[in-house]
Amino acid sequence: RVDHERIQAVGPDRAASEWLLRCGALVRYQGYEKWQQDYNGLPTGPLGKYRIEAINATDSCIMYRGFDYLDGLEHVTEITLQKCIYIQDECLQRLSETKNLQKSLLQLKIISCGNVTDKGIIALHKLTNLEYLYLSDLPGIKQKETTVQILQQALPNLELELDLE
């Protein structure tokens, strides 16, 4: 469950980092090239110094319940969801309704997430600044052409790369 007091105490980026790393995801901070993967090695410093710029949730156990941690993140430009068994349509809907992510998110990759269907992909149309979307190995997508058409109508500037068979 989400610890809202912790978010208040340490700020949204630190609290989200803690949640993501505990779930097995990686984070990269603005101005840094190295991915942070060690929970115990989380950088300390003044509140707001380390801002999450990228999230790589490959093989992680992130799930809907923790998505409140993403609300306060203002600098996330890329997210990779790969082999996330708990990611389903509701997660993608929640992601696309997150106001800060609607502004900041530029790249999204969804790969081998078996519980994602057309409904979840279509929900991404609210990510109005999204420039690049990569979809691969998503057996839950049954209406590929329709889904792609809806997304491209809603997001005409989106570069959509598909590897769905």
UniProtKB/TrEMBL annotation:
Superkingdom assignment: Eukaryota
Stored InterPro entries: LRR_dom_sf
Protein's name according to its UniProt entry: ATP5S synthase
Lineage per the UniProt record: Eukaryota, Metazoa, Chordata, Craniata, Vertebrata
Chain's gene name: Atp5s
